Amino acid sequence: MRKLLALLLFIPILVSAQKKEITLEDIYKKGTFRGEAIRADFDQKSKDPEIKTENIKDENGKAFGQADDIIISSKYPNTVLLKKGTEPIYRRSSKSFVYLYDVVAQKLFQLEKEKIMHPTLSPKGDKIAYVMNNNLYLYDISTHSSRAVTTDGKWNEIINGNCDWVYEEEFEFTRAYEWSPEGNFLAYYRFDESKVKEYQFTQFDNSYNKQYTYKYPKAGEENSKVEIHIYDVASNKDVKAQYDQGDIYIPRIKWTQDDKTLVVFWLNRHQDDLKLLSTNAQTGAASLLYEEKNKYFVEINDDWLFLKDGRNFLFTSEMNGYKHLYLYSLDGKTRTQITKGNFEVTEVNAVDETNKRIFYTMAWPRPMDRNVFVIDFAGKKATALTSGEAWHRVVLNDSLTRFYDFKTDINTPQKVTLNEIVMDKKKNMTMKEVRTLGESAKLKDKLNDYNFGKAEFIRVPNSKGDTLNGWMLKPANFDPSKKYPVLFCNYGGPGSQQVANRFGSVSTWHQLLAQKGFIVVSVDNTGTGFRGEEFKKKTYLQLGKFEIEDQIDAAKYLATMPYVDKNNIGHWGWSFGGFMSALAITKGNEVFSAAVSVAPVTNWRFYDNIYTERYMRTPQENPKGYDDNSPINFTDRIKGKYLLIHGTADDNVHFQNSTEMVKALVKSNIDFESAYYPNKNHGISGGLDNTTFHLWSKMTNWILDNMGNENTQHLKKAAQGTKGF
Asked: Which of 91, 183, 173 shows the shortest CA–CA distance to 129?
């Protein structure tokens, strides 16, 4: 009787301890695991006016409605730009109807009757620059009139003030003009893409569909001819910046503190010679300010700051093997390496010119961690603002006396604290925590309710004598006496990092697969970032070779573990990761039993020239490097199961990559499965049309069906949705 009573008392405990199972609906429909946003406002009320666009009416008395974006200048808060009807173009570009709202007069003015790009207020607050139909315009606020700075813009021929496709994608900017510090000049790019070859894809929208045509320079093909022009706003005169022409790139333009000096970044096509050219805004004449050469390639970034003293500039470079901070004088007489060591600076957070200090983030103490430091201009004394094996992201206040610390690790959602920087009389710096603003309590409760697993970092030896960083997520209720299938999640591209000590590195989808009985693993192969230049650039001229060899070595290493089902080791990836998955199922056929490639590159000859040639040079120069690592040349090796997924309107990694892979698979008589998503770009997403949910359902069910064993479970029927293709 006592035993029965004890059992009856124990049953409610078992029921209350029952954990929920993660579903695809939780992840892709309900937003069950969304985090809590905390604003870094330093307890200060915004000085910007509160704009309620629903109360604004146009000149005809019609209500404006909800704005897509509100652009407010802290210097001129009464001049507000409102965007409406925003239409995305490529990854970073969009166009909108743009309105000027006068806060004091409470009047609304539409800049143009059609959609425009890149509206910005001038430093003097009297004009607005923008791009329309490939031309650059200036709008005068006092007269509410506009004038064209350029007139020769034409689709697929001439672009002014906006990037061509390949610059936007690979040099990572889209607005291709810059105001001078005082607003007297406007420097802008002019792209002549008339000789760049066109790429087309079909947009399936009606009975006959239509072709979308744009300029896309593939590896080895001709680029746009780029000019930099400098427009004098007052005189309406335009001069061309002078530099060596030819097969070159201009990846950046930046103004110094001098209103008449523009720095033009000149880069040769091999991308191993970077020159900074100090350019006179009135004449276009240039002189060499800085040059950096590299035996591989020079990494382009935005860590270039021309200091307010007008005499020095700060930048980051890999010139000594690791990415570090440097301070050079404009006259070239003083050159200081500020940070040193076998670690990498990942971000310049702020520069305190008054006290001659730099705040920066470093991949330290391990490549997968991030901590924030401050160092003097001489590089003599560094102080840690954060510490420990974790991922810290900070936001500093304007006076650089306080900062918010957003701290996470691979298993812990963010904790946010407000901290004070205390300086003593000897200028020694210490940190004082003011208060904790949040510890993600609601999200932590959710993770506990759904029995999220704990990932662990692993060190994996490869056959070259290196040790690779990785993480492993074991199944829920892991039993070391059982054997579990393994799924590698991998991107692996140059300078990337997936093995990071931050929450989200292990996605909720990975947690779902672990709950279904999978070991999920990620390994950062040779070529990934934050371990020094040689580790990252070892893949030069043979993209894919060392990367997939590392993934194969890692799979062989895991196959020796007693709880791994060595006959069920799969690989999945997207984009460069899809390329890696295609190599895994071909070159890695002896160890990988299944692979999922989403939007993969299957031959680097099909990809754009800026990215591809940076690592491979041209196909004409390096045919063997292209052919020896293209998965379409090795489809006859496939022994396992393969799923290939692509969006038909992918402007980045063209659908052509998958169709060529299919041709090779058919020729080799290889059975495979495929899924294509009409009119979807590289991201293959969509909530209203169910694309996102369908895609992840398709992949999940395929992995469970083709890699599962006696220790795995299938999705519940309610989560399966559509049957797939």
From this structure: 183
Q: Token pair of 219, please?
A: 């590896």
Domains 302-409+412-443 and 453-719 share a fold: no
C-alpha–C-alpha distance, residues 535 and 531, integer Å: 6
Which pairs count as long-range contacts for 52-58, CB under 8 Å and 24+ apart, including other chains?
53/82, 56/82, 56/101, 56/106, 56/108, 57/108, 58/99, 58/108, 58/110
Looking at this protein, which amino acid is placed at residue 653? V
Q: Sketch the domain layout of the chain as residue ranges.
A: 56-145, 149-293, 302-409+412-443, 453-719
The whole-model pTM stands at 0.94
What is the distance between the alpha carbons of residues 26 and 599, in angstroms, rounded to a whole number? 25
How open is the CA angle 689-691-692, to the nearest 5 degrees? 125
Q: Which CATH architecture has domain 453-719?
A: 3-Layer(aba) Sandwich (3.40)
- Sheet order of strands, 261-268 included: 248-255, 261-268, 273-280, 286-293
Token pair of 367, please? 């490549």
d(CA 227, CA 192): 8
For residue range 630-652, list pLDDT tens digits in order.
999 999 999 999 999 999 999 99
Given CATH 2.120.10.30, say whether it is the number of domain 302-409+412-443: yes
pLDDT in tens, 307-342: 999 999 999 999 999 999 999 999 999 999 999 999
DSSP H helical segments within 17-109, as ranges?
24-25
Give the pLDDT confidence of 442-460 residue by residue, as tens digits: 999 999 999 999 999 999 9
> Which DSSP helix (H) or strand (E) runs through 321?
none
Which residues are paired to 84 by β-bridges?
97
User: What is the number of other CB atoms lying within 10 angstroms of the CB of residue 439?
Assistant: 16
Structure tokens at 683: 């991201």
Q: Per-residue pLDDT tens for 198-239?
A: 999 999 988 899 999 999 999 999 999 999 999 999 999 999
At residue 52, the pLDDT reads: 85
